[in-house]
Amino acid sequence: MPDAPAVGEAVLEVISPDGSRQRVRVAESPFFIGRGEAGNHLPIPDKRISRRCATILADDGRYFLEDRGHHAGVFVNGKTVAKEILKDGDVVSFGLDDSHKLVFRFSQDDATIQTLLTRMESVAEMDITSGGLGKLNLLLEATRLLHSQLPLDAVLEAMLDRAIAVTDADRGLLLEADASGALRQRLARRSGAASLAAESFTPSQTAVGLALERQTGVITDDMRQAEGLLQGAQSVITQRLRSVVAIPLYSMPRANTAESIVRVERGQFLGVLYLDSRRPAAFSKLDRQILDAIAIESASILDNARLVEREREQRRIEQELGIARNIQQALLPRGFRDFPHLAVSGMNTPCHAVGGDYFDVFPMDDEHTAFLIADVAGKGLGAALLTTMLQGALSGMTLGAEPAHVFQHINGFMCQHADAGRYATLFFGILDRKGNLEYFNAGHPSPLLLRRGGVIPLFTEGSVPVGLVPEATYPPARATLKPGDTLVLFSDGVTEAEDANEKLFGVERLEAVLAGQHDEPLEKLQQRILDSVEQFSGGASQADDITLLLVRYQAAGQRAGSAN
Known about the structure:
This protein is an alpha+beta fold. It has 3 domains: 9-107, Tumour Suppressor Smad4 (Sandwich), CATH 2.60.200; 109-310, GAF domain (Beta-Lactamase), CATH 3.30.450; 332-563, PPM-type phosphatase domain (Phosphatase 2c, domain 1, 4-Layer Sandwich). The protein is built from 12 helices and 29 strands. Helix 2 packs antiparallel against helix 3, helix 2 runs parallel beside helix 7 and helix 3 (152-167) packs antiparallel against helix 7.
């Protein structure tokens, strides 16, 4: 298992609020955990978590978790701690039910062997003359396999071979559960460490069913003395089976800290270890204990393999989303100061890797400059795909298409593909050198007009987003700007930002931020808005994309840069 944790290596399994998981190796000491990437080995994307909330320290083979002043406290298995020794399987949380959790994983060979030995009630009970010492050796070999660098299937085959040897079974089968819990045959072996075609192996469905129903192993030495349900099973009779073993496999138990009382729940169902023979067996207490230990180790191997696979898949998704984000950000306008009669400042921060907001600024001709802001319903990759389509359609106006016709076409196209479940709000404006503004609105919040003397909405009448009503029309409206007037365009991620009490930032607060700032440089004005929103939300996680576009009209001949 090339990607499995090495012996003596600590790993944090990071569980996101949406249930996705990734693994981070604790490669340094001290190992810093907190909000943001600056100075932290594990950055947690939650603004409610302190910048440096916790540290993991390694000392003489042990790992300590230390609270570094997180305002909500640091918890291990639901109990607040100042400094705590971490054990394998401990759950670390930060006093926030809907935030990230960390599961500490630590694999240490000596500790693993000792754990397996202590699972046996008494080593003194071993009958060396009957092969007890040899069976114990099989167990230790299985433990070493857990930390080997062999391919996954080779390790599982060797584990199954040792289970067959311990029980003196004729054959063994590993059944693996898929995402829905249905079982499939992963691999089969027969005595003598020989391969066996899995499709040729028909396990006793009755024994497997009983093991799953009872959530514990079904171990039958002699079918003639087994319960009636097993004795009468068709597969048992047909195959003349005399002994059967079926042990369900579960991942490591994990503490549930969602409630005030910490409960340790059974881990995820992974599969079944199945063995059978046409000869009666005589399973000793030691045999059963070793079988139980091998089953636990096999479950650990499968669980680690799944974690590694999820980590790979998560990395692949993150890489693809990173590419999509770079493309989306590259499509945003550049060179704001190049427009002859207006100054522009804008920004876009998606709440996920990619988002459904965007803005654009482009010249229509030497006399007219277009600017727009759009907000596609929803977030994430689906919304991002639609914003790219909208951007391409709207930028086509530079080829001479009438804006009203373009809006009608976009609306019709999106209504015809209503099964995509998306619509968008848009504001599109065209400003000429004399300050004449022609604009089209499709359900978007009105821009605020900031001019000497006050802050007012550009319009008050409502309109319909594109993609909702096939018959909707989008007639142009007109206004005249004075030199120095600033239009503040925003997405609802600004006005609908919430504080800890779920109150909205609102348009009135935005107007108050803008009041008296008509001479403020655009970049500073934009930052003032963002700071006000962040201060209002109190570090709460961002629930929607945030987009701002500030457009300041300047008299013909005035340099655009002078307004900034």
